Amino acid sequence: MGMGGGDNAAFAFSTSTSPRFCSPISSRRIFSDVAEDVTVSVDGQSFLLHKFPLMSQCGRVRKMVAESKDTDITKLELVNIPGGALAFELAVKFCYGSNFEIDAANVAHLRCIAEYLEMTEDYKEENLIVRTETYLNEIVLKRLDKSLEVLCACDGLDPTAEEVGLVDRCVDAIAMNACKEQLVSGLAHLECDVGSGKLRMHCQDWWVEDLSALSINYYRRVIAAMRRTGVRPESIGASIAHYAQTSLKGIERRHVWDSGPLVGDNQRVIVETLIDLLATENITTVTLSFLFGMLRMAIEVDAGLKYRIEVEKRIGLQLEMASLDDLLIPSVQTSDAMFDVDTVHRILVNFLQRIDEDDSGDLSPCGYQSDGLKSPSHSSILKVGRLMDGYLAEIAPDPYLKLQKFMTLIELLPDYARIVDDGLYRAIDIYLKAHPSLTESECKKLCKLIDCQKLSQDACSHAAQNDRLPIQTVVRVLYYEQLRLKSSFSAGDSGDVSFLQSQRMMCGGSGVPSSCVSPQRDNYASLRRENRELKLEISRMRVRLTELEREQGLMKQQGMRDGRAGEHGRAFLASLSRGIGRIAMFGPAAAAAERRRKKSSRGSQCFEGKSGRRRQKASFAYD
Q: Strand 75-78 relative to strand 38-42: parallel, antiparallel, unpaired?
């Protein structure tokens, strides 16, 4: 059989004698016209051969016969042959002059078996080593696809393939040819962007997918060579992503109760090697979704900690672009929480370190940040703050989530990461609902993380009626809501003052009071009195709260369980409700109605019963 092309005709071998093969199970007869005089055993298979054609071209066979004590040796055994029995059969065919073709599929085996049998020019001109080297140099190494095919065939031929330099030559040829193809195809696909006036390149490298056929060791060397030769980083990143998708798609979820090697060592090596490639070759063109996928794979195959940390650092550099689904990484330990909170914690730490580094470079000579809240770092941390609030709400219902881990994630973000604490309040409320066994002190500690000044009006209304919150948190919410209303009222006061000044000017500008300003001045004075009364009301509430806490502590020490503390607490909350009702009655009409109500109540106040006096004492203990 000859070569398939004219340029390959020099590598076809022919002979006038046709070989005949017997049963391939036990032995093979290569040349049948003359009786065989030697049996060669290779990997359990016996070949019936003749000494002369072997000894005339194979230096190893000649040495074995010469070193044998038996002058008429009839058996030879070859061990550790690269390529095994199939490669040896091709070499025997060459020795017998049989017609076969050297191509990209068998040239690697032929080159290695020729090296093993020492088929050099010392024994015959144009021996097998020279023939295979000529084919490699003239055909294989000049084409990317041929080099890639030969490199794939080198898998399993070590260490001979390394010793003859076949792997290194193929790796360098792949990198060099890929770089040349990108230059040629890039020039052919250049387009001008009319809007920006810049050149854009649209071309797809076919070898991105073909490289996935390589073993991980060869693939790593090819990528390193491509980086040295200047192949586009985008193409390398796409190749790494495709290789990971192809080689790791069969990994299943691990279970802690499984014994033995849960995932093959080869898959763990693939994950660790790809991550190491990202670090050593400084490849930054992979997508964030790919990084999260690699992190999940690293956890599944139990990769080394340093590899997981490397991926977490890269994710931390662009955490603001992550989605909530990216962070929901399942935990591989069934006894732990449902989600891997520790991994997200480390990612968040890396992100905050990056923010600190960015801010340190943007400081003015006085030590203040020049851009303030409009800096890119602050925009990023606001996005991460919203992302983490959503993540906290997702993991909060987990009954196995420890309080300390939950609080650590909350405390990790700085205060300026949240403009509004509604998301944080929602996550904490979900956690309190899912963990009813928390002690009172634990609830207080958790709810202290909420900044009540950052709650919206809807969140404040919900918190004021939330039975799961400690009473101290409810009081803080009501207090800051009152301060917010007060500031709104103060803003209204300034408007009223300007209105009074304008009315005074309209009435002639004199300092004598007139009928056009008297009603407005009366309303203003009444509102001032209402404000002072509300301040006293809040002070009484705070004092009463301190007394309730003191009484509750004494009751616990004495072992009393008669429900008095609950009765006092209900009375106190009732007074809070009345206070909030009074806070809502701002405005002139409301103030007048309140004064009328007070006057009418003075006449009937002396007829109230004993229960009414107790309620009055509970609400206004310091009147």
A: parallel
